[in-house]
Amino acid sequence: MKYIKIPFLLIWRLWFYLLMIVIVLILSPFMLVFSFKEEHYHIFWKVARILSKVLIYGMGFRLDFKTEEGILSDKSYMFCPNHTSIMDPFVLIALSKNPIVFVGKKELAKIPVFGFFYKRVVIMVDRSSPKSRKRVYQMAKKRLQDGVSMAIFPEGLVPEEDVVLGSFKKGAFNLAIEFEIPIVPQVYYDCKRLFSWNVFKGGLGTFRVKQHQFISTKGMSIDGMESLKEKTFDIIYNDLSNDKKYMKDTNRKK
User: Fold this and answer.
1) Segments forming the whole domain that contains residue 199
2) Tens digits of per-residue pLDDT, 103-113?
3) Burial of 29 per CB tally in 10 Å (0-12, 13-18, 19+)
4) Strand pairing report for 205-211 and 183-188
């Protein structure tokens, strides 16, 4: 059985990249046209959702989304999901009808083709540069309008396989307080288990996602950043650590 499964996984992984290339080539004219002007970002987002859904369902996955509070179309939010897999951004895009601007590492802009669009729709940050971090605030202020939200994976990187939840960086919470937008904690239970960075792991299945009740930042000062970060961490950590499938299938320990 082992020898049957591994070749299947390798072919399946190859299909992921082939599918990605084909979708990008087909949709790139639309993505190019609607990525140059910020007023067209809502249209770009619709194209990005098509890409994400084709990729998710084309890989044999399904989505099971539960939410404790709904998103309003005319408000902005700070989405904070746990980071588990390369599939995470596609899941977030597929689930959100309202456009979201990501804040991400500048290094990803070097990836061929992907990097071209990445630079146009992501606020890039160099964590080692105070000047770069200041630019993030300026760009965020400009983009947070007309119902556009932001998304940051607060762990920064995908943690090791046996880590329930990596420590959070403060960027998402500083921005949320600065612009008084609520934190939206999202829990991704299955992305790493079903589509791990390890090409010899994974398989078809359902991505379960839970969107918790929002955490208000209205009237909060920057002094409350740490408590806001800890509260968000605790919500996501407790949810993950109490999910038997998440803990068992990935051999994590509390």
Assistant:
1) 60-249
2) 877 766 676 66
3) exposed
4) antiparallel
